[in-house]
Design goal:
13 helices; Alpha-Beta Plaits; Rossmann fold; 7-stranded parallel β-sheet; 5-stranded parallel β-sheet; NAD(P)-bd_dom_sf; elongated; 402 residues; 21% strand
């Protein structure tokens, strides 16, 4: 029976998917790291993580038997994808499943911070009645600057416009403006005009420090900063400086440079205790709806890869979504280095073994090639050995029909 280890408590919807196909599920509620993680992976075929578990090269090199990794979240910067490629381990994530949840939190924080609801709440919690309009505004008529105009940024812009806001966006990639959103050709232009800046960029290494001190200082007087992306992106000390001197009117921070591995662990942040600041524990995508959707989505991807070799929406493998041919008895999947002549090498081996090929697909992406071959006949063990020993071979799997 195949086994999957789920760390950091993905939604139980994942278990239902695995159970349907006879895959044993093991769970650990928090994150694991280093040697503890290496040991936990020693007898499982697949692993599912969220944002805290780091699948480093050391961890993957120690567990080359792993077939697939599921990130039950958007980001995959906690996974050494290069090491996964070298080991032929497929990586999957949930790039769209929690988009709405992140957008709703950004809108909620924009309204709460613009109305200074945090200050009003703090005063009442302390037993002080402070009914006044000082510093409180509507978001209608304000300018929202979106940094990172992917699936989250575009949906955020649509909802912001519906609330009567003007929307500017900046992205290093070419993006089509949705609705009345206006693209800014430089981030400095956006920062000069935006009353609220909401950051939605990914966690790739090159984005570390992207919104550093210079960009925090370039924000418009009285603006609000919201970061629901990655903790490594924003210089929180610079944010604190501008909040303390009153030149920023508020901040909503959901992600931090260092985050605890498990609930209940101690946490500290330099923005704690400041007026008009919302600090949340990395919950941008943490709604029941989003987590249920992510759980089933990623589990389905892992199961489809395990059973059929399908790689649709894989983070690192060339995409093959072709179901097995109806008459096929076996499906041979071959991950290999993308070198000339790979197809000819493989088919010469198939021909010598008198294999009856029903269907064959070869897709390459960067340095990786992925070949899927459906066979209507048996393939001798000697042929499989020959395939796996080719110089460009990374991983060979033989899948049998149910």
């Amino acid at each position: 029976m195949p086994r999957v280890l789920l760390l950091e408590s993905p939604h139980a919807s994942a278990d239902s998917v695995f159970a349907k196909y006879g895959i044993e599920v093991r769970r650990v509620s928090g994150a694991l790291q280093g040697n503890e993680l290496i040991e936990a992976l020693s007898d499982v075929d697949m692993v599912g993580i969220r944002s805290k578990t780091n699948l480093t090269r050391e961890v993957l090199d120690a567990n080359p038997h792993l077939t697939a990794i599921g990130a039950f979240c958007i980001g995959t910067n906690q996974i050494d994808v290069s090491a996964a490629n070298e080991a032929g381990i497929a990586v999957f994530n949930a790039p769209y499943a929690n988009t709405r949840s992140v957008v709703e939190l950004a809108i909620a924080e924009a309204i709460a911070l613009t109305r200074h609801l945090t200050d009003k709440n703090n005063a009442l919690q302390a037993g002080v009645w402070e009914k006044n309009a000082s510093g409180a505004h509507e978001v209608r008529g304000k300018t929202l600057g979106i940094v990172g105009y992917g699936s989250i940024g575009t949906q955020l812009g649509i909802i912001a416009e519906a609330l009567g806001m003007s929307v500017l966006f900046y992205d290093v990639a070419e993006r089509l403006a949705i609705g009345n959103a206006v693209r800014m050709r430089s981030l400095s232009q956006l920062l000069e005009r935006a009353d609220i800046v909401s950051i939605h960029i990914d966690g790739r290494a090159s984005n570390a420090g992207f919104f550093g001190r210079d960009r925090v200082m370039a924000m418009k007087e009285g603006a609000i900063l919201i970061n629901l992306s990655r903790g490594s992106v924003v210089d929180l000390e610079a944010v604190r400086e501008r909040l303390t001197d009153g030149s920023l009117s508020g901040a909503g921070i959901d992600v931090f440079p260092r985050e605890p591995n498990a609930n209940g662990d101690p946490f500290s942040c330099s923005l704690a205790g400041l007026d008009n600041v919302i600090l949340t524990p990395h919950i941008g995508g943490s709604t029941i709806e989003a987590q249920e959707s992510i759980g089933s989505f990623v589990a389905e991807k892992l199961v489809s890869y395990w059973r059929k070799g399908l790689t649709g929406l894989s983070v690192n493998m060339p995409e093959v979504d072709a179901s097995p041919a109806p008459s096929a008895r076996h499906r041979v999947t071959w991950i290999h280095s993308n070198t000339p002549g790979a197809l000819a090498h493989v088919n010469s081996i198939f021909a010598a073994a008198h294999a009856n090929i029903d269907a064959q697909t070869l897709v390459t992406s960067g340095e990786i090639g992925y070949m899927v071959t459906d066979l209507a006949s048996e393939l001798p063990e000697s042929a499989l050995t020959e395939l796996s020993e080719l110089d460009q071979s990374i991983r060979l799997r033989v899948l049998h029909r149910d």
